[in-house]
Automatic annotation (TrEMBL):
NCBIfam families linked: DivI1A_domain
A Pfam family per the record: DivIVA
Protein known as: Cell wall synthesis protein Wag31
InterPro entries found in the cross-reference section: DivIVA_domain, DivIVA_fam
Organism: Pseudonocardia kongjuensis
Coiled coil: 75-109
Domain of life: Bacteria
Subcellular locations according to the entry: Cytoplasm
TM segment ranges: 6-26
Major location category of this protein: cytoplasm
Gene3D superfamilies found in the cross-reference section: 6.10.250.660
Key words of the record: Cell cycle, Cell division, Coiled coil, Cytoplasm, Membrane, Transmembrane, Transmembrane helix
Keyword Cell cycle: yes
C-alpha cells in the first residue's frame, strides 16, 4: 500500500511540473487580447454584399457551435441587402411598365403605319 501511495505522489508531482512547464511555455493559450463583448471578427464589406462575400463568410467557433451574435449580425446584414435589392427590383419593374405604357401611347398617337413616311 505504501508503494502505491509513493507512485501516486510521484505521478502528481510530475503532472504538476508538466503543467507548470506547459503554462510557462504556452501561457494561458490566448495569443490575442479578447474581443470586446459586442465585437466580432466576422467581416462583410461596407459595399453591396456579393455571393462570393457570403461564401467567404466565416464565424468564430465556440464550444457548442458558432457565436450567436455573429450569426445574427450576418443574417441581419444579408436580410437588409435582400430587402434593398427587392425594393430596387420593384422600382425597376414599375419603371418598365411606365415606359411600355409611354411607348404604347406614342404608337397610338402616331396612328397606323401606312408606309408613307420617309425612312430615317
Amino acid at each position: 500500500m505504501g508503494t502505491a501511495l509513493v507512485y501516486v505522489l510521484v505521478l502528481a508531482v510530475v503532472a504538476g511540473l508538466v503543467f507548470v512547464l506547459a503554462a510557462a511555455v504556452f501561457g494561458r493559450g490566448e495569443e490575442l487580447a479578447p474581443l470586446a463583448p459586442d465585437a466580432t471578427p466576422t467581416r462583410l464589406p461596407a459595399r453591396e454584399v456579393s455571393g462570393a462575400d457570403v461564401r467567404d463568410l466565416r464565424f468564430q467557433q465556440v464550444l457548442r457551435g458558432y457565436r450567436m451574435a455573429e450569426v445574427d449580425w450576418a443574417l441581419d446584414r444579408l436580410a437588409g441587402e435582400l430587402d434593398r435589392i427587392r425594393v430596387e427590383r420593384h422600382e425597376l419593374a414599375e419603371r418598365v411598365v411606365r415606359l411600355e405604357a409611354t411607348i404604347a401611347r406614342m404608337r397610338a398617337e402616331e396612328g397606323p403605319d401606312d408606309g408613307n413616311r420617309p425612312e430615317q
